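Quick question, first post here. What does this chain look like in 3D?
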Amino acid sequence: MTGADSEVTSGASAPPEPAAVDFAAMGAGAKIDPTVELRAALEAAQAKADENHELHLRARAEIENFRRRARDDIAKAHKYAIESFAESLVPVFDSLEKALQDGSSNAAALREGVEITLRQLRSAFERGGLTEINPVGEKFDPHRHQAISTVPADGTLAPNHVVAVLQKGWMIADRVLRPALVTVVQGS
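> Answer (accepted):
Ran it through. Tokens below.
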């Protein structure tokens, strides 16, 4: 390689980094190459864009993590929603199992055991928010009652009212689990 070649090579070196250019040291009379200013502005804008892009990616990741945690929390809530209700039913199961294991044929003892089990079950239902629908004497409500039969109005019974319950209905909070099967007085 000759000396002329080395001059060309060294003359073709990259311009100084914009951050390395000290504009204040150049003085007021010095001419500033506009490309240097533009490169400096471009690099500053690129750095800001990179920073904003990084912040955007982090925000998206944070939102996705929040959504994932929310989905997990909902899945856990669904999975364990009836846990306390199920815990209150375990003693009822135990009582029924003991009644079947008891070999005595004493009807009074069996009845007493069933009554105790029924009280346990009612208590479990109350803790679970279940309420029975026993609408004798109430006005027929198609949202809570299912009419199985009707009886003619005889003047003593109010029309469109429930006179007998064939099977109690059940509600949890304000939602009907099972409507009550009822007999209704015919309307006039």
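The domain at 130-188 is CATH 2.30.22.10 (Nucleotide Exchange Factor Grpe; Chain A, domain 2).
Residues 1-16 have pLDDT under 50 and may be disordered.
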